[in-house]
Amino acid sequence: MDNPVPPHQQSAGTPEQRLDAASEDYREAVLRQVRALTEDNQRLFQAALRSEKRFRMLAKAVWKIQEDERRRLARELHDGIGQTLTALANHLQRIADDAHAHENVGLASRLGDALDITRSALHDTRELSRLLRPTLLDDLGLEVALQWLTRTLAERCAIAIECSSTVGEQRLTPDLETLVFRITQEALTNVIRHSGASEAQVRLTRIGNLLRLQVSDDGRGFDPGELNNPDKLGDSVGVRGMRDRAELFGGRLELKSAPGEGTRVTLVVPVEAGDDISAAPGAATKPGGL
User: Fold this and answer.
1) Whole-model pTM?
2) pLDDT per position as a tens digit, 209-257
3) Which of 133, 157, 174 marks a domain boundary?
4) Residue-number span of the structural domain to which 103 is assigned
5) According to its UniProt record, which reaction does this protein catalyse (predicted)?
6) How many angstroms from the chain centroid is the CA of residue 190?
7) In this structure, are residues 67 and 96 in contact, taking their beta carbons and an 8 Å threshold?
8) Cα distances (angstroms) measured from residue 162 to each of 5, 95, 262, 281
């Protein structure tokens, strides 16, 4: 008769117990994998946040370089070519005066034509200089610059452009003021080129720590889905550029339009503590000033 196997040599536990133990080991293995995946995802998420932050910093740096280049070109146009054309206009005027004094009517007439061309070139040079980088924006602030922009564009086209602001003499950081000015400029350019509108409005308000810009028109409007059309690539790039610039400052840009119902572009951007600066002393911010 065989001797029985001692209990300590038998397989530990019943089949049910062994199955439970195996299941527990499997759960622990799964939990370890889940924890490892979670840690990997957290590392990837943090890396993505760092990459996005670096991208925003780089994009802001590129944008500031572009604005600095605009400022330099504007100064070159105003102080270089502008002054040269001014000197040329003065010289032509003196020659024309001499021609009149000597009753040389033919020469005086030709000099008068040359003087008109020179003055027209001087005017265009000064306007281009201001559009590249208006000194009003740096010297007197956003509200005055927007008043000037809307008035200037209205004079060039058959659209009545109204501008109102509740910001007053309050100044923001140069970067934020430049952002709002550029988006207004881009939006109004689109109105003039594409809308067929007779009227447009620019509204700038601040509510708490939010700055809100709205540019609207009574034009023909369009289906925003058309911006995905390859034939509308230029328009979509302009809208995307405005949105990208808004996002650089933690803001958002919305575009609403429909055929026959005009278009409204709305920018909402936060004004952080570091974005406020003191009011510019003596800034003339009354509508229609300058």
Assistant:
1) 0.68
2) 999 999 999 999 888 887 766 555 555 667 888 888 898 888 999 999 9
3) 133
4) 22-133
5) ATP + protein L-histidine = ADP + protein N-phospho-L-histidine
6) 14
7) no
8) 101, 43, 16, 26
